[in-house]
Amino acid sequence: MYMRPWKRISSEKIADCRVFTVHKQLATKSCTTGEGERTHDFYVFHSGDWVNVIPITEDNRVVLIEQYRHGTENFTLEIPGGSVDMSDPDPLFAAERELLEETGYQADEWTPLGTTHPNPAIQSNRCHTYLARNIRQVRTPVFNTTEEIAIRLVPVVEIPELIKTGVITHALVMVAFYWLDIHKGQ
Predict the structure, then answer these.
(1) What is the pLDDT of residues 142-182, one digit of tens each?
(2) Looking at the structure, do residues 30 and 80 belong to the same domain, yes or no?
(3) Biggest alpha carbon distance in the chain?
(4) Phi, psi at 98, each rounded to 5°
């Protein structure tokens, strides 16, 4: 069966929420069943790309961060990450910046692990995941006004159990560790 893509006719920004905008997009599609054309309103969240970093120490521990997330009104155990700022020349620069800001660590060795679309049904951005090796703590973390972060060093071998038992629940963090497993298998 041949599938046809939807074609955007118009796009109207209906909300600007600082870290993302919401657009109402009218789209049309020719039906494959001979019923003519259909139109539909889609709502799309636009934001900049994101980065995630899996920083691993010489003794094979992951630098994790624990922080409060207002969306779930709970604490989460995550890897360092954040937004690719407009001033960042590329996602790797953003990953280096986020690692330093959130943990105080720097890395000498960076490996891109993969890129994910967080939710392609309603979001247009991507999340770039990096492995950081040969890391060292060079300063204390610098948090923004809403961040309060505790650093946790966890052996890499314990990560699957933390995911299985629901200690790590952030979907993009789980995807990052999946990328790491693929990388290790190569």
Answers:
(1) 887 887 899 999 999 999 999 999 999 999 999 999 999 99
(2) no
(3) 64
(4) -65, -40
